[in-house]
What does this fold into?
Amino acid sequence: MNKTLSFLLILAGLAFKSSAQQKPVYKNANMPVESRVKDLISRMSVDEKIGQISVLLGWEMYDKTGNKVGVSEKFKQAQAEQYTGMLWATLRADPWTQKTLKTGLNPGLSANATNALQKYVVEKTRLGIPMFFAEECPHGHMAIGTTVFPTSIGQSSTWNTTLIETMAAAIAAEARTQGAHIGYGPVLDLAREPRWSRVEETYGEDPVLNGAMGAAMVRGFQGHDLKSGSNVISTLKHFTAYGVPEGGHNGGSVTIGIRELHQSYLPPFKAAVKAGALSVMTAYNSIDGIPCSSNPVLLKDILRTDWGFKGFVVSDLGSISGISGSHHVAANAEEAAEMAINAGLDADLSGYGYGKALKKAVENGKVSISTLDTAVANVLRQKFALGLFEHPYVDPAKAVKTVRSAAHIELARKVARESVVLLKNQNNTLPLSKQLKNLAVIGPNADNMYNQLGDYTAPQAEESIITVLKGIKNKVSSNTKVRYVKGCAIRDTTNLQFDEALAAAKAADVVVMVLGGSSARDFKTEYLSTGAATVKAAETSVSDMESGEGYDRSTLDLMGKQSQLLQLIAKTGKPVVLVMIEGRPLNLNWPAEHIPAILNAWYPGQEGGNAIADVLFGDYNPAGRLPISIPRSVGQLPVYYNVKRPVAHDYVETSAKPLYAFGYGLSYSSFEYSNLVISKKEGGNINVKFTLKNKGTVAGDEVVQLYIRDEVSSVVSPDRQLKQFRRIHLAPSEERTVEFNLTADDLKLMDSKMQWVVEPGDFSIMLGASSDDIRLKDRFNISSVN
It folds into this structure.
């Protein structure tokens, strides 16, 4: 009996061992990731490898019938012919994709759709490699039913990295529970050209602020465990120097020096890579004649060798083809594919940049199998890191519960509140009383929900968006009569309501004017294959859109009849509060001189109306600060604060200084800076300590900004450069000791030999409320360099 049992146990053991041996290494979760990657690549054909690094447009890959969703014939064809391993914008809905509230997917159906697509590839393809789903996530997941936060320029106006990290985690949770794995964002381009159409997507003009915000987004997106089911890979955009195109033309060439590239444009990306970013997107532009999508110095030497980047690089949509078609440095598609992958560009967002062209390049010996395998490994490594081979599916019920939860809606309001910048408050016009008898709300952005949401926004249910008008009505007492008149459109000069607006203003105690711009896309707009708008100089049917990808400007003036409407209302003599909702800094010269109170809210997202009302009526003390200078004229451009010395002199017509400088913003409180002490610490760090006091009668936040100046440097350096900042909350009369510690990284520059060094000499410390409002100043000396 015992011998029989022993024999059976031996047989069972042998059977188990045989089964384990038959299981491929890449499907064994207990094996190291690198072993799994190597094993899987060894089993793949060239076509399958190219398919894994080809990213197709995703919104055509599912079919929806009523409340059921499944894979489309186009997806089946893509798998049969292209072996694609990654889709982009599968859940995206907007006029370009032609997905509406009716034809698109709600959160539950989104989860069902990604599950169906995953099930198909896992069960019906030869190797069963799970799909990667990449989605746009700059200020919320760009899908139906998700939470819409302020656009990036508003996020950076909070100067609150902890808050932005929390926001990013919420965006990631909403995207991941619907089946997404990659979130496109943050955008780390320096916005030093406000005519450029994509300023709203950036964190502004400063490398330190951009880097801090970018790192916060990466931490929020990726968390501490990609297998959590609540995190996504962060894709940094656009590598690099994309935000300063000549003439403001989106995707145009840029003119910067190599030292400036290293000192200003690369640091935000380096900070985000240091924070753990696992994906980087190349930019459309070229630098010094080399397209970013075929630049080995950027993609290999700097990104991987110098910074130790471990993720994968993806092209912007069509940018590989642009090496040939736009930049004309490649003769054909094959040569463009060869240049891109040999330079270190791993994945092709489009599906036609690599595909057949890359296969031909491999067959002709222009791209080695080793190079192809490296690119494929960089992508597959992250699929294993996310645990997709073990857990490819998501729970639709969890998606429904997570997306646009009450907590996320409240968070959207908090981010919007903290982003509002008070530019002017003459004679304490604000805050307003909630007991006003008559209030006029006038302007094209007062009650237009899409105009306050920004670009990269999905269609919205009307009840989900709180406009400024709604927010004000939610705030005032039942005894306050609120009269709304649109007055005019953003761009269209027909259908004016000047008489109605004038009548409303004359009957009001206070007038709230809501003007600015719009990035609201519509179905009448034509789009390029990249998603950028096609702009016509004269349009028969004029949309409000004057910002957003492709909508570059030659002036920064308010468009249409907005200025005339504002001036007409101001002539009534009634107190006017101007609220600007916009995607880029617009001309405020006349309002700054004639309007007593001005708020800048950028595009504040779905809770923008409530947030603005909180500020208008004193339930929230504003503390937003400008992340970008507001110029007086396009003739000043560029007008960013940290321009290299010498300091600019005035023009014949106007000051050389911006109307409102970088870092500027007012409060309902006043803050006192005192007792500055600078000391050197062990290890060479510089300690900066001072006292901050709230001298006002209401609690509020002060955004303390620390700038430095290298008094004498071996290469030309900025007159001042932000190095650290902190948003600090103080009760009335409360004071606090604030400390900063400067390290060698804060003091270094790139010398004449292109080496990073800290040079001996004097440095000035400047502490204040903005780049041109310095409250405390002193010097310290670096006598020697270790």
